Amino acid sequence: MVQRESRYSSYCLPETKVRLLGEFFRAQRSHKWLLCRVSPSASCINSSGERAPTLKRDRVSVFNDKFTGPQGAHRRATRRDRIRCRARSDAHDEPSGRGNNKIFLISDVHTDHEENLDWIRGLSSVDFSQHTLILAGDVTDNLEIFESTMTLLKRKFRDIFFVPGNHDLWCRRKEDNVTDSLTKLEKLTETCSSLGVLTSPANIGGVWIVPLLSWYHESFDRERDIEGYNIPPVHKACTDFSACKWPTPLSTSDDSIARYIDELNDENLRGLPAREQADCQVISFSHFLPRFELCPEKRMLLYPNLPKMVGSDWLEARVRQIHGEMGSATSCHLFGHTHFAWDTTLDGIRYIQAPLAYPRERARKQISAENELPLCIYDSERGGLLPGPFPARWSEYYRLHKREPDNQQLAPWVEPHYHHQSDTPAGGGS
Fold this sequence. Notes:
globular, 27% helix, Purple Acid Phosphatase, chain A, domain 2, 11% strand, 11 strands, alpha/beta, 5-stranded mixed beta sheet, 6-stranded mixed beta sheet, 430 residues, Pantetheine_PDE
């Protein structure tokens, strides 16, 4: 399909999608919303090769036409309305005069691991009590543990913002009583609302914090695949493809899930008041990656096909819509998912990840010290958004080295995990 070249050529979308996205965003700008600038089967392989424990029709979306008949339309409308209404009920606008305002970041807390839950229990109940936490997804797939985790955190922090990650939308526990991942999303949103955890944009101490729902799609990956090795495809390597349940016509075989989840942001963002201050601080966040440069090259990854299940082009379009195509000195987007600490600026927007990750990953944590978590990214007494970059091995590596997407030589720590197909039959390796 013909691709449209632009300043963001690395994000080229098919011509039709680019046109539709452009029309959509131009229409939204006319409403002045948030214009802060001048107007294996039982295990999931993550970025480090580790395995998780077993246990509106007329916008960007075209696939909605597949919902046929009044029942399909009703199901789509009511499900979205339930999620949006609960999210909107969380919104609030606080005055800026609340003393020193600090905002902390963490992602991928995975509290189905008792060690991680203990880590949260060990957080001070005093040091963070007047401050805000941004939790960028992947708490647990267990609704009971999710509620207890959020209850614990609410005792530590004054305000908490949350977006779900892929683990949060798994549907593999009968006791959760969910039929699919969209129902799970509704229950998570409902639980957050009941606990006072924020899932929609709000002004906290003069800072707008904007949660963005997202999901990944395989076409996000446009770098060359590693060839000649027995690397399993994503549908065999990642539990998401079996543990997440999506109603028809949503499918893991195309980008329909990413588009549907992205459209759930429409109502929340449209409800934001117009902002006229050219220097106002806005912090957006998601679980998934908005840009592929926020993940190491495939040859560096213990699972080289990881980039096919990490990010979304629609998410990056949202981020650029909020912060402006050119970004600014105060533009900041936070994310999670890959378990790689990261702090870099791309095309005027600063991107930060600060994961807790799995207990067994702590020894090789890519942020300088575990006691830096949760990571303070904003401090009003120190001038706002804290200067960076924060210590993060991979983003530091790419400050010093260019990406080499055509390099097919697996890194020394990766190659022992795979056999070359010329020597060993394909299969296994997962």
